[in-house]
Amino acid sequence: MTGKNPLIQALALVVATALLGLAFVIGAVVIGVLLALGAVAAIAIAIRIWWLQRKVRAAAATGTSGPSARQVIEGDYTVVGARASHPRSLPRDDARGRPRDSAD
Questions:
Q1: What's the whole-model pTM score?
Q2: How confident is the model over 66-78, as pLDDT tens digits?
Q3: pLDDT above 70 (res 65)
Q4: Cβ partners under 8 Å of residue 88, min gap 6
């Protein structure tokens, strides 16, 4: 490959050492950037969780519920145009209130 020339071997060793050092520095920078991005994401998630817990505690303390809480709406209604072929209740066969069995 390089032959027996000591000058070329020394130059190859210097170039290989420089490339290895450069690869190490670039790797360290990439790992540092990834760790920094992970730290920023972790802080953002922690702040979001803290904010949501704060809102839930405040809502629980005041007794109010958020927009996703279930509410009961009461009212009257009238059935219009009911068909006779679709009964609203099962026919009863005795005083005990049992539904009539089709096998009876």
A1: 0.48
A2: 566 667 888 888 8
A3: no
A4: 82
Which of helix, strand or coil describes residue 92? strand
Contact 100, 91 (CB under 8 A): yes
Which one-letter amino acid corresponds to residue 82?
Answer: A
Residue position matching structure tokens 């704060």? 54
Give, in degrees to the nearest 5, the angle at Cα 88 between 84 and 91: 90
| Residue with tokens 């920078």, as numbered in its chain | 29
d(CA 100, CA 89): 11
Tell me which of 85 and 49 has the higher pLDDT.
49
Distance CA 65, CA 48 (A): 20
